[in-house]
Amino acid sequence: MIIPDKFLLPEDDGLPVRSSNEYARYKLLAVQTYIEITNTSMKEKPWKDRYYVDLFAGPGKNKIGNSIVLGSPLIALTTQMPFTQYRLNEKSAKLATALKQRVAASPQNAHTEIYEKDANEAVKDICEEITARDLVKDGLWSTLNVAFLDPEGLELHWETVAHLAKIAKMDLIINFSTNGIIRNYGAGNYDVINRFFGTDEWMKIYRREKNPTFRRRALIDFYRGRLREFRYNIIDPDPDLGGEDISFKNIKNAQVYSLIFASKNELGDKFWKAAAKRTRQPRLF
Fold first, then answer.
1. What strand order describes the sheet that includes 61-64?
2. Which among 156, 134, 132 is positioned nearest to 55, based on CA atoms?
3. Residue 276 and residue 16: Cα distance in Å, rounded?
4. How many angstroms separate the CA atoms of 99 and 61, rounded?
């Protein structure tokens, strides 16, 4: 039975949900904390608009174990200090329909547009809109933007990241899938990994680093380093955090993926570090 009154609550509402592993709780908590810190600090500034972009939005809710939690789009929509604009994308028609039903219950529905495309295509329309908004001369600051890029594997192309990165103020939170790289490398799907990195230079690192931990670190640093061309602040790893990313591990304590953060403003880095310190994943055994 579908229960509209529960569409925006972390409860079963009868609509489809996305099944997730336990460690997804901490990923979502990190995003939620960053959004809360950023919007609380920036809401009174004269931005043209504050956009939240989610290219792999899912249905809006996740099932973790026996519990239902809000997914990233509903976290962003229900935050106490909301964004002024939301651009969401979900390729699956079934999941996009569920997302639309839930979003329709939000006071932010009028400020939300939902796409049903491949994420690497939807980004073009979204970036074109934000770029046009920035060109309007109205005495306000530019737009302020946060993009959450959370593919299940390596579906995110580097070209898509580059589209977003060309926007003046665009903070990026990117799911870097270690498992996806290992899986595709083992299957010989090098083109998939090339599209993810935007180059085949990753292969030299993969073959050079024999230790899995060192290899993962080197690949993340290589990916982050490529963001420098877009003037992102890419600094040496913070000894308190182990780098400008948060790692998530499975029950065997094996690293599954990391959230990479990139901002062109030191304040964004400060906010992310605060979020990272609050959302450390405990050991699962």
1. 18-20, 61-64, 67-70
2. 156
3. 30
4. 8
Please choose, from the candidates 165, 171, 162, 157, the residue with its C-alpha nearest in 3D space to the C-alpha of residue 47.
171
Which residues have C-beta within 8 Å of that of residue 206, sequence separation ≥ 6?
A: 181, 185, 215, 219
The CA-CA-CA angle for residues 108, 111, 115, to 5°, reads: 110
Tokens representing 183 are: 């899986």
The band of 238, judged by pLDDT with boundaries at 50, 70 and 90, is low
pLDDT at 131 over 90: yes
List, for residues 48-65, the tens digit of each pLDDT value. Answer: 999 999 999 999 999 999
Q: How many CB atoms lie within 10 A of CB 190?
A: 14
Which domains, from first to last, does the chain contain?
4-278 (3.40.50.150)
Whether 237 has a pLDDT exceeding 70, the answer reads no
145-195 pLDDT tens trace: 999 999 999 999 999 999 999 999 999 999 999 999 999 999 999 999 999
Those residues whose C-beta lies under 8 Å from the C-beta of residue 229, and which sit 6 or more positions away, are: none
Strand boundaries in 90-169, DSSP class E: 112-115, 144-149
The yes-or-no verdict on residue 281 having pLDDT over 60 is yes
Residue 112, CA atoms < 13 Å, CB-side half-sphere: 23
Burial of 253 (0-12, 13-18, 19+ CB in 10 A): exposed
CB atoms < 10 A from the CB of 10, how many?
16
Beta-carbon-side half-sphere exposure of residue 71 (alpha carbons within 13 Å): 30
List b or e across 149-164, with b for residues whose CB sees 16 or more CB atoms inside 10 angstroms. Answer: bbbeebbbbbebbbbb
Q: How confident is the model at residue 253 (pLDDT cuts 50, 70, 90)?
A: confident
